[in-house]
Amino acid sequence: GDPPQLELGSQREPGRMIRFWVRDNGPGIPLEKLDEVFAKFERLGEMRKDGHGLGLAIVKRIVEKLGGEVGVESIPGEGSTFSFTLPAR
Q: Which H or E run includes 18?
């Protein structure tokens, strides 16, 4: 397959928010699993055996405490885009 690629970016959103995102060309996440990626103790796939499934849950909690939101979009076989917004100060 294609070599792994990551793309990082940010953009100003309406309402004094800034969106940050990370896009990859990995295997993607099945549509029925998208709601689970930010849940505690969830680990999707078998590629990575270590960890406890807390990373994205912690990110979500921190971002929401700071007044932002997290999100994910994915196309199986093409990759995923994880994003979060934070208020511009």
A: strand 17-24
